Amino acid sequence: MIAFLKNRLILTGQIPAMFLIVAICPALAIAQEESDSAEKTEQQQREQQFGKSLTNKVLVGSFTIDGQADQPKEERYELKKVTRLRDDLWVFNARVKYGKTDITLPIILKVVWAEDTPMISMTNVTIPGLGTFTCRVFFYENRYAGTWQHGKKGGHMFGRIETATTAENASSENTGNDRPKMP
Questions:
Q1: What pLDDT, in 10s, does the model give residues 131-154?
Q2: What phi and psi, each to the nearest 5 degrees, are found at residue 37?
Q3: How far apart are CA 110 and CA 125, in angstroms?
Q4: Neighbouring C-beta atoms of residue 171, cutoff 10 Å
Q5: How confident is the model over 115-129, as a mean pLDDT?
Q6: Please, which pLDDT band fits residue 177 given cuts at 50, 70 and 90?
Q7: What is the distance of C-alpha 95 from the center of its chain?
Q8: Closest Cα partner for 76 from 91, 95, 89, 90?
Q9: Phi and psi dihedrals of 162, rounded to 5?
């Protein structure tokens, strides 16, 4: 059988093509590894920049409630530190203020990427002291926007990312609401 295939390849002139394929395959594999390595490095840089861009920042914005014609309500999230925990999980040490709620705690959130744009992706995540939420929130340059759901209520959220003042950092550290990290 091997002799037949060898003779057939020689007679039809396919040996040069076969050698070309054998010679190119390792080169393609090396090029793919280099491309994968470059993509990993780019992603690591994006992740590092994301953490820095949200550390000591304040998300100042508004949220709407579906079905209500009221003006958007104010919201405020003071971010002391944002760091990657592992894989796509990040720790947001945050002071959350909306309505009568004002609490500081570490929140573990899933962050996924749409090319160069990070997005918080929560589906039925319980945050101690706040409740269970679903949301998708994108961050780009100095803005954030997304959707949220809390029980039967939901809506949109949007705003600016601002640098925290020293007073804001001190107040978020001294609220007494710090809790252990979620598992």
A1: 999 999 999 999 999 999 999 999
A2: -65, -40
A3: 10
A4: 15
A5: 94
A6: very low
A7: 19
A8: 95
A9: -120, 155
DSSP 72: P
Query: Can you name the CATH fold of 55-173?
Result: Lipocalin (2.40.128)
Which two structure tokens, joined as six digits, stand for 42? 């780019």
What tokens appear for 176 in the block? 């007494």
CA distance linking residue 136 with residue 16, whole number of Å: 54
SS (H, E, C) 81-128: EEEEEECCEEEEEEEEEECCEEEEEEEEEEEEEECCEEEEEEEEEEEC
Place of tokens 């590092």: 48
Residues paired with residue 11 on neighbouring β-strands, in sequence order: none
Distance CA 55, CA 69 (A): 34
Sorted by sequence, the CB contacts under 8 Å of residue 165 that are 6+ apart come out as: none
User: Which residue type is seen at 178?
Assistant: D
The span from the CA of 86 to the CA of 13, in Å, is 53
Q: Which residues contact 151 (CB under 8 A, 6 or more apart)?
A: 131, 132
Q: What residue ranges do the domains of the chain occupy?
A: 2-44, 55-173
